[in-house]
Amino acid sequence: MATxxxxxxxxxxxxxxxxxxxxxxxxxxxxxKCVQCGLCVSACAGGCILIGSLYRxxxxxxxxxxxxxxxxxxxxxxxxxxxxGCLTCSAACPTGAITIKQPFRPGxxxxxxxxxxxMTPPHRY
Length: 125
Description:
Layout: H1 7-11, E1 26-29, H2 39-43, E2 49-51, H3 56-61, E3 71-73, H4 88-92, E4 98-102
Antiparallel strand pairs: 1-4, 2-3
InterPro entries: 4Fe4S_Fe-S-bd (IPR017896), 4Fe4S_Fe_S_CS (IPR017900)
Keywords: Iron, Iron-sulfur, Metal-binding
Protein name: 4Fe-4S ferredoxin iron-sulfur binding domain protein
């Protein structure tokens, strides 16, 4: 039990009223470990990862083939990445080439976030 903290301090959930407080996740793709299989692109539910100009839909439809380049985060027109750091891509990666550099931090639209302590990113298959 936490001592010296009030009930409010122990259960206080931060509020982010400033959109500038929102930060998307940043991933690190290790090109030495990457085998260019495209599994990370297929696994990303948000479609945030691309290889060259190929997106998730290209790999799912069969148009995208493996070994066409290294993965990278897709960005919005203002160069902001769209990743929320779920790490599904990392779990799908057979070589462990994907790590998180900066976690997702919600901003103004998600004023309150509750995450149970037992929640963890997905594990490798």
